[in-house]
Amino acid sequence: MIKIERIDDGKKGEFELYEADVKAGYMTYVWAGDDKFIIDHTEVDPEFGGRGYGRKLVNAAVEFARENNLKIIPLCPYAKGVFDKTDEIKDVLSK
Q1: What is the pTM of this model?
Q2: Coil, strand or helix at 95
Q3: Residue 34's CATH number
Q4: Cβ contact 93:85 at 8 Å
Q5: In the chain, count of helices (H) and strands (E)?
Q6: Domain that holds residue 25
């Protein structure tokens, strides 16, 4: 079973993805004001590679942004690539 948790200290945060209670990957972000955040790193443990977990982390950030009326600045190359290729998530992209 896959589970994604969000941890946030008010300045920065992390989405953590767990498979069967083992941390398989994470994506970090930093707040850029009250209404947007910067995704700065996405990483999936090589043992869990090829399962689409990186994209699941980006999708979790998109869902969080939509629910809270936030925008995302994807500085992480992986996250930027997902945004570049996926039109349906560009509504949360910061201009």
Answers
A1: 0.96
A2: coil
A3: 3.40.630.30
A4: no
A5: 2, 5
A6: 2-92
